[in-house]
Amino acid sequence: xxxxxxxxxxxxxxxxxxxxxxxxxxxxxxxxxxxxxxxxxxxxxxxxxxxxxxxxxxxxxxxxxxxxxxxxxxxxxxxxxxxxxxxxxxxxxxxxxxxxxxxxxxxxxxxxxxxxxxxxxxxxxxxxxxxxxxxxxxxxxxxxxxxxxxxxxxxxxxxxxxxxxxxxxxxxxxxxxxxxxxxxxxxxxxxxxxxxxxxxxxxxxxxxxxxxxxxxxxxxxxxxxxxxxxxxxxxxxxxxxxxxxxxxxxxxxxxxxxxxxxxxxxxxxxxxxxxxxxxxxxxxxxx
Length: 287
Fold this sequence. Notes:
Layout: H1 2-5, E1 9-15, E2 18-25, E3 30-34, H2 48-51, E4 56-60, H3 79-92, E5 98-103, H4 105-116, E6 121-127, H5 132-138, H6 142-147, H7 149-153, H8 159-177, H9 188-198, H10 203-212, E7 231-236, E8 257-262, H11 269-272, H12 274-286
Helix pairs in contact: 3-4, 8-9
């Protein structure tokens, strides 16, 4: 990792009133990567050097995470603000378009950005986060409500923060190693990196505020049009939080849609099966 990491650059960009940290490598067209919960740019460590061969890869710390600004107000963590952040990053880096890649919450932001600014995307790649219409449908089923029960716990004040930081942030380790099929995908150093990011002042509350506003987010609106941006979805089939059935019939919402399922793989798909994820991304980008 040290040789690869030596050519990564850590930089900052101010957009939409917040200063966001990102890691970048490579030159060329822009590929922007958005991570999920409870992660940070590091989730893309296996993808950054791979795609830096052909792109300027930018792996962002979303607002509230790691080394990005963490506004105090809960109202700062809503979809409209996330979309403005992404728009500002693309333009602030001197681009009009990008390939947008998102996992988990980053995937939710990517879906919403694609509908808001389709003209700013060349292609869209989503990992283990269903189309918003499918997620809204899923939350009306008992099985998905059970899988998503943590969302309701996260609505409480203070309690989730205490649970997440207890016993040296054991819940962060459990989130990764406890739900991954390929446990060896996460070394002690990887887990320590995630714990350290979560332990930064204000980070836990900021990360949880994404969920505390979820029922006001437009992503739960059941009516969506047909997206014109060419889209690839990659899905680890053994996701404990999001059922595979949430991917079915996504093609009804996307004109040019492909899906690649990865068996024996959990929610953390680009970290559990990086070579396969990179292969599927490459094939899609070439097409």
